[in-house]
Amino acid sequence: MTLVEVSVSCAALLLLMALTVMILRTALTGWARVDVQQDLVQEMQVVGGTWVREVLAGSQAGLSVAPQACSLLSARDDTHQEEPSGLYGELLWRRYRLYFLDSGQLRRLNVDPTAPTASPSPLERVDLGAGRFPLDHYCTGGKTLLRGLTRVEFRRQGAVVHLLLEGSRAAYGRSQPQAVELHFSGEPRND
Q1: Where are the beta strands (DSSP E) in 75-112?
Q2: In sequence order, what DSSP letters do the residues of 9-26 get, joined into one string?
Q3: What is the residue-wise DSSP string for 131-162?
Q4: CB–CB of 160/185 below 8 Å?
Q5: What does pTM read for this prediction?
Q6: Mind giving me the DSSP string for 114-139?
Q7: Residue 173 gets which letter from DSSP?
Q8: Would you list the domain boundaries of the chain?
Q9: pLDDT tens digits, residue range 29-53?
Q10: What is the DSSP secondary structure assignment for residue 185, as one 8-state letter?
Q11: Is 55 helix (H, G, I), strand (E, B) or coil?
Q12: CA 136/CA 126 separation, integer angstroms
């Protein structure tokens, strides 16, 4: 072999190796994007599914909806059981579950009334000892359910309550974050 043949062979081998690295990098970047998007969708589905179960178990008369907050009246106790009382097995409404957006995070706060009640009413109409307040007064603290949200929207359409979750996460190899939007809806029980 001459020096020219060796040089051409080395250049071809180098070109093949560079092409292989580029293909591998493109494949891994695409896989990472899909993985980031899939993780975000799964987290949103878990939170949205929990919210829908709370809506379905909640009271229509105890429901409060604002653009970025939703209060659901729940009959479940700390063991997640509903305990009927009285001769006719009426449910005792025990706590309000307040879902709200706070600094890009969806949070849930449990607000306990002074005593369980058989007659449901929205959180704004209940005096918890310091007077009656609008729904956004209670939107502080609570447990963080989901981070990285760009938009949360609650709305009521007839008896059905809707939740829109929109979030984004940075993906490897992209300057723009991966965005996901999911919709959930449920209808509370009619007391």
Answers
A1: 84-85, 90-91, 95-102, 105-111
A2: HHHHHHHHHHHHHHHHHH
A3: ----GGGG-SS-EEEE--EEEEEEEEETTEEE
A4: yes
A5: 0.77
A6: SS-BSS---GGG---SS----GGGG-
A7: T
A8: 34-186
A9: 666 666 778 888 999 999 999 999 9
A10: E
A11: helix
A12: 14
